[in-house]
Amino acid sequence: MWTSISYDELNDKIVEFEETQIGKLYNFWVTIKIEPAKWNEETYGLDGKGFWAVALIGKLVIWYNDIEEGFNISRYNHYGVISEYKSNQDELYITVSLLLNSIMS
Questions:
Q1: Are 62 and 73 contacting, i.e. CB atoms less than 8 angstroms apart?
Q2: Please, which pLDDT band fits residue 1 given cuts at 50, 70 and 90?
Q3: Which residues are paired to 62 by β-bridges?
Q4: E-strand spans in 47-104?
Q5: What is the pLDDT of residue 44?
Q6: Which of 25, 55, 60, 93 would suit a FRET pair with 86, their CA atoms being 20 to 30 Å apart?
Q7: Residue 76, exposed/middle/buried by CB under 10 A (0-12, 13-18, 19+)?
């Protein structure tokens, strides 16, 4: 069984990302980020009491999969519930960049 990442460990990843960003990507991040909160996910999230959601835009959530140790983008239908399990092992920079690029294209 895996152990869920702590709020402080997750926050360290977020701060590390924020300290290296400027310009368009940083401004986008500031617009979509939320206070990290545990969201339910019914496939694999039960053991860790959910996964940490860190940003929202429309019906998309950026969240940290601490089983795979990476950030993901998934849809949600109800606030607080991740609808699609993803297993990417991306750094926050990659995930935010992918989302921004998909919106701008």
A1: yes
A2: low
A3: 55, 73
A4: 51-57, 60-65, 70-75
A5: 86
A6: 25
A7: buried
Which of 78, 92, 76, 81 has its CA nearest to residue 5? 92
Specify which residues 7 forms β-bridges with: none
pLDDT above 80: residue 64: yes
The SS3 assignment for 53 reads strand
What pTM was computed for the model? 0.94
Angle between helices 23-32 and 7-19 (to 10 degrees): 150
What is d(CA 18, CA 1) in angstroms, rounded to the nearest whole number? Answer: 31
Angle (CA) 40-1-49 rounded to 5° is: 20
Q: Are 88 and 70 in contact (CB under 8 A)?
A: yes
Residue that is written with structure tokens 């993803």 in the block: 86
% of the chain residues with pLDDT over 70: 98
Can you tell me whether residue 66 is helix, strand or coil? coil
Alpha helices in the chain (DSSP H): 7-19, 23-32, 92-104
